[in-house]
Amino acid sequence: MPNIRYANMCHWKSIPYRQIPNFREFYYEDKTNSAYYSDWDSILKYQSALGFDGIEIAPWDLADILPLFGSPENFSAFARDRGVEVIGMFHGAHASHAADHFDEAVRSGREAVDTIVRFGGTYMNTCPTQNYFGTGPLTRDEVQNCAKVMNEIGRYATDHGVKIGLHNEFFCAINLPNHRELIESTDPALVHYCIDTAQVSILGEDLLTFYDDYHDRISTFHLKDTASSKQPDSVRYAQDPEIADDGHRWFWEPGLGELDLKGLYRLLKKHEFKGWMSIEYDGSPDLLASMALTRYHLDHELRPIYD
Amino acid sequence: MNTDPIAISLDLINRHYQEPNRNRYESRYFWEELYTLIAAAGFPAIEIPYEPVWQFGGRSGVPFNRYCVNTKYGDAATYRARLAASGIDRVAGITFDPNLFMRNANLDFFFGATGHFAGEALAHAADMGADYLAISPSAYYGRIAQYHPDLEAKRDLFTERTVALLVGLAAKAEDLGVTLVLRNEYWSLFGGERILALAEALPASVKLDLDSANLFIAGLSATEFLHQHAGRIGCVHLTDTAFVDTADVWKAPNPEFPPDRATQVFRDPGQGEIDFAQLVAALDQAGYTGPVTCSARQTRDPFRALLRTRAVLDRLAN
């Protein structure tokens, strides 16, 4: 058994069909490649064929997945039949910095944990509170409010066999000035950390230093590359910066950006990391091509260092 | 019919479902180039779906609600100036459907959120100088039934609350000078001929949408519908389909994607079974002079759809 297993963070937009029994007929209707991106049967087969044995779903997938499959359990069984397991679900802890939102933030987090358990997942990577624009800068007390919410959700998650991992975006109210303060204000036994390699680099952390400093808190990764490390406040604190007006991509497939991912893998070996690593392809124009390019890079550049 | 002022709906961009290159649709640059291509395809006007979802999660590059327009352009006037500079003279209409808010069994949430955002859509329509707000009066029948398995027993309750919501919107629409129009989707709780009873309960200022594909799927003739309700048609959608619903797909949770047999329900104009020449002749005969909008919803290729639609209109003009 390898030390690292690979998953994909689900960035497929709505997939309208479970399976297409009349695939050829559907294709011939307008003779485009849409048919190849319209059913979960194909999507999961792509993953399985390329060696991604896990999928991390997102809460916004539920509105489509649940009507299509009837229940989380049914979706997981369908995926498992194709060699893919649901490892967890992303969660956004909206307004967790606000003291008067504590109960709602904890309730919402617990519900998400319950959903993950039904999918058979064990990870809940959690974005602490919302975007910086309109919210930041946070006071010290507000950072502590976030920590309180994370600890409380973390306690419930741990009791239910789920690890929550803080997951910071480069444009969140938890940002460079208070990123480490939040981590250190949470209980290491209850709250872990998911390193999104590109996000923390754009945020302004040095990826290798950050992992070295917090390696014992790391539950999982979102692995992706970037060519835009250390963005200034004017970018990170702007309104809605995640999708750039001019089509600039913050995120690239491993090997297509500038991060020292080989250095990261040497550190993974040093700290004997064991667990899941999700690849993320947000911003990609072609998720299937991204998946294949990533598999090549993993097999030829990164896994030879540590597997 | 003079086809020159006919609008095209921006619903030809498949922003919700997966396909290669879909990521472009969330960036401002994509839309700003699209406007010029729409104009180049001979359309001087657009229809905009009002979609609150882009207000959440930082996706304001999709110009489909007031928040997004204000975030990217400052205000509606600046956005309209951008359209004009791209060759788009008018926003003919705004559409709104409440499917996003049918996500649990709480009817207060559904009607509260729908009322709030439909009101936003209406104000946005006024800011855009649009002729109409075409509203879907219900969420997908099948999606409602998921959370309300006793939907048929609750039909009167849904109708009462829908009427109350629409009466309020109608008054606001009159004040704003925007025509409130009921969409008539085949998947609606008020689909097909059921829309008529709903319309009867509303002020006469509330008009009906004549949507050729939706009527076809509901088993109704668009020309018959026109003859029967000519005085109450508030806008016309030239849409195409070849879909015949033999399995009650209209009651499915995601009715635009028939679960047992994959098919493209809405075809690009000219690719389905709708006889546009006959429909346009009937509109002329009825003396209809209101807004007409083409839609290539569910297209597999928006740029091919633009030109396919133009080819249909060119044939009508000749």
TrEMBL record, chain A:
It holds the Pfam family AP_endonuc_2. Residues 48-284 form the Xylose isomerase-like TIM barrel domain. InterPro entries: IolE/XylAMocC-like, Xyl_isomerase-like_sf, Xyl_isomerase-like_TIM-brl. Transmembrane segments: none annotated. This is TIM barrel protein.
UniProtKB/TrEMBL annotation, chain B:
This is TIM barrel protein. Residues 37-298 form the Xylose isomerase-like TIM barrel domain. Gene3D superfamilies: Divalent-metal-dependent TIM barrel enzymes (3.20.20.150).
